[in-house]
Design a protein that fits this description.
- Helix content is 33%, strand content 22%.
- The protein is an alpha/beta fold.
- The protein has a six-stranded mixed beta sheet.
- The relative contact order is 0.18.
- The structure holds inosine 5'-triphosphate (ITT).
- Homodimer.
- Keywords: Hydrolase, Magnesium, Metal-binding, Nucleotide metabolism, Nucleotide-binding.
- One of its GO terms (molecular function) is ribonucleoside triphosphate phosphatase activity.
Length: 199
């Protein structure tokens, strides 16, 4: 049985394969890139959950198969939660991880460590072709470094140091990151729901 991963973000796809396999989900996972004719949905929601549901529904409707989607981002305390749902295009160029990260670091300047709190958030949504939907969320708290460090992961991983860690997310192994991450938490919570409704 097939489950569509309604994302074109390569970093997410790698992590989702590992998270879902480790959770014992025995479905044939197919990324949105396998359906190049299905246009990207406009992310018009104002929350991670709304946007995750929009993406999951678009793929489920167009393929006739169950679909899961991830909407995620980095929420910075002193920026009132920004970039939040705009994390992928903070610099103006969608998916330019390096430009997004550098702009954010410039905006924070030399603000002291005690004011550099931030968290990653992830909404994991499941949609079925008949319109059934479920969504769960995960969160990883941390502080933002002054300079990037580490080469694993993607996006803002080189600057987010999780609470209780001395390394950034990009210095953790993939398994270490998935064990504590916003995405790991959200998708592990979604697995029993996928089994029940789409397994
Ligand atoms: P899809 O919509 O195709 O899934 P996207 O990259 O546009 O891909 P989002 O709108 O959910 O997805 O944006 C997520 C952005 O948030 C992502 O590009 C990163 O910049 C950041 N982000 C999310 N999870 C992250 C993680 O685990 N580590 C680092 N950055 C992350």
């Amino acid at each position: 049985k097939r489950l569509i991963l309604a994302t074109r973000n390569a970093g997410k796809i790698t992590e989702l394969h590992a998270i879902l396999a480790d959770a014992g989900l025995d479905l044939d996972l197919v990324g949105a890139d396998a359906y190049p004719d299905i246009p990207d949905v406009k992310e018009t929601g104002v929350t991670f959950a709304e946007n995750a549901l929009l993406k999951a529904h678009a793929l489920a409707r167009a393929t006739g198969l169950p679909a899961v989607a991830d909407d995620s981002g980095l929420c910075v305390d002193v920026l009132g939660g920004a970039p939040g749902i705009f994390s992928a295009r903070w610099s103006g160029t969608h998916g330019d991880d390096e430009a997004n990260l550098n702009l954010l670091l410039a905006q924070l300047g030399d603000i002291a460590d005690e004011h550099r709190g931030a968290y990653f958030a992830c909404a994991a949504a499941l949609a079925l072709p008949d319109g059934t939907e479920r969504v769960v969320e995960g969160r990883l708290n941390g502080v933002l470094r002054h300079t990037p460090s580490g080469t694993n992961g993607f996006g803002y991983d080189p600057i987010l140091q999780p609470e209780g860690e001395t390394r950034t997310c990009a210095e953790l192994t993939p398994a270490e990151k998935n064990a504590i991450s916003h995405r790991g938490q959200a998708f592990r919570a979604l697995v029993p729901v996928v089994r029940e409704l789409a397994g």
